[in-house]
């Protein structure tokens, strides 16, 4: 009898120990080596100099991690969750979140005119052709009818010849803060189809300026490319949004980041300026198909001069200028996944986060829609085997990428530093997501059958 009791106790201890182990070690995908192999394949085929991927659940537990590195380009290099990267447009959702925090406390309203805080923009004009059509409308018509799959905007000689120089009009409704958030304000990058516009932005050399006040003065000389509140056109709108936040609070964007996000949420891996201890990776490119170091001026999204991360520089670009680690960015994404809360601190109200991923623009796109600069996928991803419906995603100019899965409560970050990707690397995100969801769906099917 004593022997049987002892066996029973041992079995119970073994059972509960097993349960505890499972709870402490989250099971994510059944064959992580297949995802490893995919990451390595995109480095081996010359698409990327390095790739680092990190996946965490909503509590910050590590579900998956892998690095793939071209050792001939980056000898003796190791990458982990605390390695620093230039994250470019992955800065946007952070700046938008800061502004929404200011809206919640009543410092700003989404319907406030931008000129209330930046009077230098009171006399902005819109670039139109001789028929009064905005240059953004012309480029949209061109790409949708004559060139349905254009890839990135490029200088187009025919469009430039016909529409440069442009005409200027000031007949439009006031630009508001919500227009900046939705890219409906009219600011653009130096990557439009119009050489004349691109050259004018390039000539401002805004990345060489030392303060945001100087940048504002320069941008006030540019025309807008859309009528505010009209069609959306991707550009410097979120950077201007950051300027509004600075003017409204009397603090720099860097101070707002520290005081409202980094310190209260306990996030370390986000910042604007480089320190001596941070070693950034070089920029790589495959413009001519062979992977190489990027040429000076090749990253021309804001002109030929790239962003200055010097700590002595007081210009902060909320749409493009942040540095981040995979660990730090995953923390920020987990705040969104937790509907505004992280590490015991509530940053945004749940209803505000719901607005971030609610449909706002690109509502007729079969692949999904845009929230507040957060792409939300449609069932097309599910049908094509490249993910699932309802994922929140975004990325940066040097091919950084993230997505959030609110159904399964995890966040994923892919880091690299790459400008022009060769054709064999175009499907990286789709293939990697596809493999992960193939395994997740199989697991869910097995669990359902049990």
Number of helices: 14
Overall tally of domains: 2
* CATH fourth-tier homologous superfamily of the largest domain: DD-peptidase/beta-lactamase superfamily
Strand order, main sheet: write it out.
2-1-16-15-14-13-12
The radius of gyration computed from the alpha-carbon positions, rounded to a whole number of angstroms, is: 24 Å
CATH architecture of the largest domain: 3-Layer(aba) Sandwich
The biggest sheet amounts to: 7 strands, antiparallel
Average pLDDT across residues?
Answer: 90
What's the count of strands? 16
Specify the oligomeric state. Answer: single chain
The helix content, as a percent range, equals 25-40%
Percentage of β-strand residues: 5-15%
Protein topology:
Layout: H1 2-24, H2 32-44, E1 50-57, E2 62-69, E3 84-86, H3 92-104, E4 126-128, H4 135-145, H5 157-163, E5 167-169, H6 177-181, H7 195-204, H8 212-219, H9 237-249, H10 253-265, E6 270-271, E7 284-285, E8 292-293, E9 323-325, H11 326-337, E10 341-342, E11 345-346, H12 350-356, E12 368-370, E13 375-377, H13 379-384, E14 392-395, E15 401-405, E16 410-415, H14 428-449
Antiparallel strand pairs: 1-2, 1-16, 3-9, 4-5, 6-9, 7-8, 10-11, 12-13, 13-14, 14-15, 15-16
Helix pairs in contact: 2-14, 3-9, 3-10
Commentary on this structure:
With 450 residues, the protein is α+β, with helices and mostly antiparallel strands. It has 2 domains: 28-72 and 79-88 and 270-449, DD-peptidase/beta-lactamase superfamily (Beta-lactamase), CATH 3.40.710; 96-249, DD-peptidase/beta-lactamase superfamily (Beta-lactamase, 3-Layer(aba) Sandwich). 36% of the residues lie in helices and 13% in strands. It contains 14 helices and 16 strands. The chain has helices at residues 2-24, 32-44, 92-104, 135-145, 157-163, 177-181, 195-204, 212-219, 237-249, 253-265, 326-337, 350-356, 379-384, 428-449, and strands at 50-57, 62-69, 84-86, 126-128, 167-169, 270-271, 284-285, 292-293, 323-325, 341-342, 345-346, 368-370, 375-377, 392-395, 401-405, 410-415. The strands form 5 sheets. Strands 2-1-16-15-14-13-12 form a 7-stranded antiparallel β-sheet, sandwiched between helices. Helix 3 runs parallel beside helix 9 and helix 3 (92-104) crosses helix 10. It starts with a helix and ends with a helix.
């Amino acid at each position: 009898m004593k022997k049987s009791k002892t066996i029973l106790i041992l079995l119970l201890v073994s059972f509960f120990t097993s349960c505890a182990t499972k709870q402490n070690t989250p099971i994510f995908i059944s064959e992580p080596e297949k995802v490893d192999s995919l990451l390595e394949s995109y480095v081996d085929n010359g698409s990327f100099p390095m790739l680092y991927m990190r996946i965490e659940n909503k509590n910050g537990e590590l579900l998956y991690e892998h690095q793939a590195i071209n050792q001939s380009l980056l000898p003796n290099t190791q990458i982990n969750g605390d390695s620093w990267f230039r994250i470019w447009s992955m800065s946007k959702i952070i700046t938008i979140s800061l502004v929404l925090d200011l809206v919640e406390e009543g410092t700003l309203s989404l319907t406030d005119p931008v000129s209330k805080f930046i009077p230098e923009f009171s006399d902005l004009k819109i670039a139109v052709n001789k028929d009064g059509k905005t240059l953004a409308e012309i480029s949209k018509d061109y790409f949708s009818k004559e060139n349905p799959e254009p890839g990135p905007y490029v200088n187009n000689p025919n469009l430039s010849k016909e529409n440069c120089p442009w005409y200027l009009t000031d007949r439009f409704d006031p630009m508001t803060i919500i227009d900046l958030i939705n890219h409906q304000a009219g600011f653009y990058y130096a990557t439009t189809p119009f050489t004349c516009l691109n050259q004018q932005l390039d000539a401002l050399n805004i990345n060489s300026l030392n303060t945001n006040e100087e940048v504002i003065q320069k941008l006030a000389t540019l025309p807008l490319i859309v009528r505010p509140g009209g069609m959306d056109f991707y550009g410097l709108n979120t950077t201007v949004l950051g300027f509004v936040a600075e003017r409204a609070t009397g603090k720099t964007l860097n101070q707002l980041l520290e005081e409202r996000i980094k310190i209260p949420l306990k996030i370390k891996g986000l910042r604007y300026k480089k320190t001596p201890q941070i070693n950034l990776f070089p920029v790589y490119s495959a413009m001519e198909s062979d992977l190489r170091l990027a040429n000076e001026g090749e990253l021309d999204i804001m002109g030929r001069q790239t962003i200055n991360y010097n700590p002595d520089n007081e210009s902060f670009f909320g749409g493009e200028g942040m540095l981040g680690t995979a660990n730090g960015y995953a923390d920020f994404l987990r705040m969104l996944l937790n509907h505004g809360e992280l590490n015991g601190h509530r940053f945004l109200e749940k209803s505000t986060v719901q607005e971030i991923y609610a449909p706002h623009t690109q509502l007729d796109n079969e692949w999904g829609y845009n929230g507040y600069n957060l792409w939300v996928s449609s069932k097309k991803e599910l049908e094509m085997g490249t993910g699932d419906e309802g994922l929140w995603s975004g990325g940066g100019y040097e091919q950084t990428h993230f997505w959030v899965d609110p159904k399964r409560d995890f966040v994923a970050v892919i880091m690299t530093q790459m400008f022009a990707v060769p054709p064999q690397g175009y499907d990286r995100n789709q293939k990697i997501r596809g493999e992960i969801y193939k395994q997740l769906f199989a697991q869910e099917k097995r669990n359902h059958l049990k």
